[in-house]
Amino acid sequence: MKKKLFLLLFIFILVNKVPAQWQNIWSSGSIDGTFASGWFSFEKSGDIWLSRLYTTDSVSFHVCSTGFSITPEYTYNFTAGEKAAGYQFYSLGYDLTGDGKVEFYTISYDDASGYLQSFKIIDITTGNIVFQKKSPDYSYSYPTFKDLNGDGLLECVVAKNEFPYQNKYYYEIYNTGITGVQSMEQPAKFSLAQNFPNPFNPETKITFTITERQNVSIKIFNIQGELVKTLLTKEFQKGDHEVVWNGKNEFGEQQPTGIYFYEMRSGSFTQAKKMILLR
Question: CB–CB of 263/218 below 8 Å?
Answer without folding.
Answer: yes
